[in-house]
Design a protein that fits this description.
globular
């Protein structure tokens, strides 16, 4: 798909999901999630940057009409949603998830937006 075919009102979805993912991931790092899985904060941040870069590349390729963009966006979004749901879902259901409503909104937003991207 050529850029012109996207239309003048097209706004890339990247800022929308970053507004949810970034606060949640900052909270994850503050809570020691990287250390919980055996990584240093630096390595965890490096891997996160690479993951977000791949997702952004997938969205760019998708906007250009490349099939690989759809596959990348689908797979990365599916991993985000699944891992977030498995890791944080039980605490959310119990009502004991971190700092309350902001944390729940961030992780629920991550799960919903990433699940939507994988459709």
């Amino acid at each position: 798909m050529a850029r012109d075919a996207l239309g003048p009102g097209y706004h890339p979805p990247v800022p929308r999901w970053l507004a949810i993912i970034v606060p949640h991931v900052v909270e994850d790092f503050a809570d020691g999630v990287a250390q919980r899985v055996g990584l240093s904060t630096g390595v965890g941040a490096f891997l996160l940057g690479g993951w977000l870069g791949l997702q952004s590349l997938g969205l760019i390729l998708l906007a250009c009409g490349r099939a690989v963009g759809w596959l990348m966006t689908f797979m990365i979004s599916l991993v985000w949603a699944t891992v977030a749901l498995l890791d944080h879902g039980p605490a959310m259901i119990r009502g004991t998830f971190r700092t309350g409503l902001p944390s729940v909104i961030w992780v629920a937003g991550l799960i919903v937006t990433q699940a939507f991207c994988s459709l």
